[in-house]
Design a protein that fits this description.
heterodimer, A: 140 residues, alpha+beta, Archease, Possible Chaperone, Chain: A, domain 1, 2 helices, 7 strands, globular, B: 1008 residues, eight-stranded mixed beta sheet, seven-stranded mixed beta sheet
Chain lengths: 140, 1008
């Protein structure tokens, strides 16, 4: 199962993604990686800065939205680029994530585009058979 | 990317939808197209598209969908406009313009939708139009076919109400089974919100004593009708013969023409008009009269209460027929029966539909004309063969007129329902036959009734001889009444319908009560048989509903009989007070909440409902805009130093993701920036004083209030002042060649007076700050919209009335966003001036580096406009659209009162951009025109076709020097990803809205 893919036919001016995961944790990680792929090549970013993200929401859709928005926020407020993120979701639903990245360094990071936000356009999170899927469009 | 079968299907459907759309729009002029209000349910104004045929064909169907969605928003004035460069956005199309009157409830929105039913169990019965229901599961299967018969009254064609499933999730968890006191059960996921007295509460938080809102009416299960023909031209001709209608005065032909025009010449069981025709027929047989006056003109009169006549009017409209006004008059009536003569007066309301063709139609369908008491008729045979739900429609309106209102004969028991009829004595057997037809219909729907009988004392001497009275009774047993009220009920009679719902609920409660007592009765007997003493049993089982007396009877009675309802059970009169509103809704207490393990599918349904109100989202959050700065340098002077210049600009104007600006601000500073906009920049050395008059709103929207902006937004914005962003944002060095000057006089006025003069164009907005504001308010609006009764079709269209506290807050926050965007472009301007100073070693003032103009193309503005000869202040939303005021507008001062407002429109980085001016004619579109060329393909598609580095090399060969942060990003911005700017600009010129001044060609570009 691939972690994520770009979707056609949904938007011309922005990026549309579908992310997959065996469980919620995987789904959230892959969604974050999808979002990140629009901003920077993850492998080109180091892991020197570690940040903890803690969020809570009883609707899983809203939780993912907040989580993705948080990554965008870190990019704007602290110029932090992401290498990877580890996610642990418990109960319904408490999220604890560890963000690995570093401050923007144009000499090192292969940047792509500035993402402004996640939108509600075609937004959904659902369990399909034995795995989870998330669809979202980001505004660039 | 391989396109899967599902996606191909989706694209085909999109094309189909678009073709359907194109058929319905009317071309008004060479470049304008009107979308009628009838196109979509709920549209308050028509849509108006500015485009050439070619551009129209290029637009995706979503644009039309979004355009017409906007037209449903409250307070919208004139039209929902669409510019020639339109493409689909979020909620609002990009290239969309709409003005709203705050006094009419006009809204403001950072970003419309269906009526969300939430996650429900597949077996849940969903009530549909026309008194039918279908299980959620069934609905899901037939999502493509479910045609809820709605009529487009203009085209007289079927219009589908879409059912969209958002989520079909496989659950393997606990779901909640909620049972109410009236025995209703619903199975939902824990997040499903249910309406209670305290507002919507998610299922998992409901308690046993909570009251939920229920309505008894369920209707009949939907089945597909056949396409068997009920009526065709031949039958109409035969009817005309029977009615002795000759073609005198072309009467016959006119009748046929009328029926053909209104799609009524052929009626099948699956004709979309049939449900309404059935309703009208049922009612006419009750309180209606159809006559041919002087044997010529047909007319149909409906007598009912005003509120019910209004429903009839609506139904006429649904099948595309005009309906007259409601007449009111006071009638005096005198009737002589066995008991004497009685006189009475009453206020009578009626509708008189004059239409020979319609009367002929109903006649052909089986309705009698003239005085019903002296005509022979039965229930038309074709109705007896119709599917159950169609039978129900006919019966419901007939009963609405003729069946008695439910009445109690004691505290808790109801009379049989009475249907009384009068018939001329000679035709009394026909009347019995007719009533038996009704009985048959009822029987088919599972309702018990008694054999029709003659009624003594209801004979009277009418105008045409003696009549007899007849009566049909529907059994008043609880079980029968419940079924009748829940599945058939009354139509065209709100009073009876409301009562019906209450009675059904009440009877259910009564049955619950009896059931409980029965259980206790049986238990008492068992306990007694097992040896318990009576006093012990009484002790154990005594409740309010099961007193000592009752228990003792249960023990000692030889036969165990089903008990009556408890003597303390509330009377119906008492119960009626639980009614909520006037449509038969009632508060029902939750009896039990069970958590059930469920493994299966649940559905999240969204219905394309009427009365959608929404407002554009994402509209304003970009606060994106453009600025054009001139110089007095020529290409010859700049070209040798172009590379150096662009490289320096690339350094001085940070672009791309995560970049920080050079201006270091404290939170206090930032607050000032978002309040004062460009004024702050000028005060702090980032601009010249006269820059202000060359910017929209003079560089500052006064209403900006930092307290309405979240800390998160501030955190996102504070480091970004003076940055360019990425995507389609850019900084471009441009040249104005003599051959590209379209209006020399105007060009001169704007300071463009040398051949190959160099200018600089900047395209960017308020960056993360504006977006955070949008997201913050989007969330807020989604929560408060129910308070203002706003339903939206798309979450991205969340909004609030401008004249509400939340709307006002958003406006003030949005103003901050706009101020930051203008300030951002100002700081960038400062950097540009400094870069030029460094490279050309001259003072920027010496190089005449004045701002020609600065515009916003994603914003909502409060502007005064003339509507219906009154001056009003409207909130004009321009999404991907530029303001283009003509010289006569009050806001245009100084130079601009001569030239009109300059408009800057960006093309792709390979083709060029335009400087235009607005005209006075632009008041047609509330002073709005396009903003750019619009894309032809997605970013990922562009990336596949264009190699970034190669593109840059090619462009350099062509004389355009590009510096970019991301090669992937630049490939997405290739020329082939954009439409032809010329066509777009020409469209608005042909429409007289904006005029070309000069085409500007790129020679240098900085991208993020």
């Amino acid at each position: 199962m691939k972690p994520f893919e770009y979707l056609e036919g949904i938007t011309d001016a922005d990026y549309a993604f579908k992310a997959y995961g065996k469980n919620l944790n995987e789904l959230f990680v892959n969604s974050a990686m999808a979002l990140n792929s629009a901003m920077v090549k993850s492998e080109s970013v180091g892991e020197t800065v570690v940040k903890e993200i803690v969020l809570e929401n009883d609707v899983v859709e809203k939780l993912l939205f907040e989580f993705l928005e948080e990554i965008i926020f870190l990019k704007d407020a602290e110029s932090l680029m992401m290498n990877s993120v580890k996610v642990e979701i418990s109960g319904t639903y408490k999220l604890k994530a560890v963000f690995y990245g570093e401050e923007l360094n144009l000499d090192k990071h292969e940047v792509v585009t500035d993402v402004k936000s996640v939108t509600y356009h075609h937004y959904k999170v659902e369990k399909v058979n034995d795995h989870w899927e998330a669809t979202f469009v980001v505004d660039v | 990317m391989i396109i899967g079968r599902q996606r191909l299907l989706l694209m085909y459907k999109m094309e189909e939808k678009k073709q359907e759309f194109l058929k319905k729009i009317k071309q008004k002029s060479e470049v304008t197209w009107e979308v009628p209000i009838s196109f979509k349910n709920g549209m308050r104004v028509p849509g108006l598209l500015y485009a050439t045929k070619k551009l129209l064909d290029q637009m995706e169907d979503r644009v039309f969908d979004q355009l017409t969605n906007v037209a449903t928003l409250p307070g919208i004035e004139k039209y929902s406009f669409c510019m020639p460069d339109a493409h689909s956005g979020y909620g609002f199309p990009i290239g969309g313009v709409a003005a709203f009157d705050p006094e009419k409830g006009g809204v403001i929105s950072p970003g419309g939708v269906g009526f969300d039913i939430g996650c429900i169990h597949p077996e849940t019965k969903i009530c549909l139009e026309n008194g039918t229901w279908m299980s959620a599961e069934e609905l899901r299967k037939r999502i493509e076919e479910v045609k809820l018969p709605l009529f487009d009254h203009k085209t007289k064609n079927k219009k589908e109400v879409e059912l969209l499933i958002h989520l079909e999730t496989k659950k393997n968890e606990e779901i909640y089974e909620i049972t109410t006191k009236t025995g209703r059960t619903i199975k939902v996921t824990k997040e499903h919100p249910i309406l209670t007295k305290e507002g919507y509460i998610e299922a998992e938080y409901l308690k046993k004593t909570d009251n939920v809102l229920v309505n008894s009416f369920k209707g009949v299960k939907y089945e597909d009708p056949s396409s068997e023909v009920i009526l065709n031209k031949k039958i109409i001709e035969e009817t005309l013969d029977k009615l002795d209608k000759t073609n005198k005065g072309n009467a016959r032909n006119q009748i046929i023409k009328f029926l053909e025009k209104n799609n009524l010449i052929e009626i099948k069981y699956d004709s979309p008009q049939l449900p309404i025709l059935l309703k009208l027929m049922g009612f006419i047989l009750g309180d209606g009269v159809m006559t041919f006056v002087n044997n010529k003109t047909g007319q149909i009169q409906f007598y009912a209460k005003e509120e019910d006549l209004k429903e009839i009017q609506k139904d006429f409209k649904k099948i595309g027929l005009n309906v007259q006004t409601i007449y009111k008059r006071t009638r005096k009536h005198e009737i002589t029966t066995k008991y004497g003569t009685s006189k009475f007066t009453f206020q009578e309301c009626s509708i008189n539909k004059k239409s020979t063709a319609l009367a002929v139609l109903f006649s052909a369908l089986g309705l009698p004309h003239g005085r019903k008491t002296s005509k022979k008729y039965r229930v038309p045979k074709w109705i007896l063969k119709a599917p159950k739900w169609q039978k129900r429609l006919f019966l419901a309106t007939f009963f609405g007129a003729e069946l008695s209102t439910p009445k109690t004969y004691d505290k808790t028991n109801f009379y049989d329902l009475q249907l009384n009829m009068n018939k001329s004595e000679k035709l009394k057997e026909n009347a019995i036959d007719f009533l038996n037809d009704i009985r048959l219909l009822l029987y088919d729907l599972g309702i018990k009734s008694r054999e029709p009988v003659y009624v003594e004392g209801n004979n009277y001497e009418g105008k045409t001889g003696n009549t007899v009275g007849l009566r049909l009774l529907i059994n008043g047993t609880p079980k029968n009444l419940i079924k009748f009220f829940e599945e058939i009920s009354y139509e065209y009679n709100k009073g009876k319908t409301k009562l019906a719902s209450l009675v059904a609920n009440y009877l259910r409660l009564k049955q619950e009560n009896i059931k409980k007592r029965w259980t206790v009765r049986q238990l008492a007997k068992e306990m007694h048989d097992s040896g318990m003493s009576p006093s012990e049993i009484v002790e154990k089982l005594k409740t309010n509903n099961t007193g000592e007396h009752f228990i003792k009877h249960s023990i000692y009675d030889r036969q165990l009989l089903l008990p009556r309802v408890s003597p303390v059970f509330q009377s119906f009169e008492e119960y009626r007070k639980n009614a909520y509103g006037n449509d038969g809704f009632v508060w029902d207490e939750i009896k039990e909440i069970k958590k059930v393990h469920y493994e299966g599918l649940v559905y999240d349904l969204t219905v394309n409902d009427k009365n959608q109100n929404f407002i554009a989202n994402n509209l304003v959050i970009h606060n994106c805009g453009m600025r054009l700065i001139r110089t007095n340098l020529t290409f010859e002077e700049v070209q040798p130093k172009l590379k150096e210049l662009v490289d320096l600009l690339f350094k001085m104007v940070p672009a791309g993701v995560g970049r920080k600006g050079f201006v270091k601000l404290t939170k206090e500073d930032f607050t000032q920036v978002i309040t004062k906009g460009v004024e702050w920049c000028v005060e702090n050395g980032y601009g010249w004083k006269n820059d202000l008059e060359h910017i929209e709103e003079n560089g500052c929207i006064k209403k900006g209030d930092p307290s309405k902006v979240s800390d998160k937004a501030i955190s996102r914005g504070i480091n970004q002042l003076g940055t360019l962003g990425s995507g389609n944002h850019y900084l471009e060095i441009q040249v104005a060649k003599k051959e590209n000057i379209k209006d020399e006089k105007l060009a001169q006025k704007f300071g463009i007076n040398k051949d190959e003069q160099i200018l600089i164009m900047v395209h960017c907005g308020s960056r993360g700050f504006g977006h955070q504001i949008g997201t913050d308010y989007l969330k807020k609006f989604l929560e408060i919209m129910p308070k203002y009764n706003i339903e939206i079709l798309d979450r991205e269209l969340a909004c609030a009335p401008l004249n509400s506290p939340e709307g006002q807050d958003y406006y003030k926050a949005m103003a901050c966003g706009a101020n930051l965007a203008m300030a951002n472009r100002q700081v960038i301007t400062h950097q540009i001036r400094e870069a030029f100073r460094q490279v050309f070693k001259k003072d920027p003032k010496e190089m005449d580096m004045e701002i020609i103009y600065d515009i916003s193309h994603n914003i909502a503005k409060l502007e005064k406009w003339n509507v219906d000869n009154t001056e009003k202040e409207l909130i004009v939303h321009r999404k991907g659209s530029t303001r283009c005021f003509g010289p006569s507008r009050k806001e245009m001062t100084g130079l601009y009162s001569e030239t009109g407002q300059p408009v800057i429109v960006g093309g792709s980085m390979e083709t060029g951009s335009y400087l235009l001016v607005g005209t006075d004619k632009s008041e047609e579109t509330f002073g709005s025109t396009m903003h750019g060329s619009g894309r032809t393909m997605s970013r990922t598609q562009a990336r596949k076709q264009v190699h970034g580095e190669q593109l840059i090399k090619d462009m350099e060969k062509r004389g355009i020097y590009v510096r970019t942060v991301s090669f992937k990003g630049v490939s997405e911005e290739a020329g082939l990803a954009y439409k032809d700017i010329n066509e777009v600009v020409d469209t608005m010129e042909k429409a007289g809205i904006s005029k070309k001044v000069v085409l500007l060609r790129p020679i240098g570009n900085v991208k993020g």
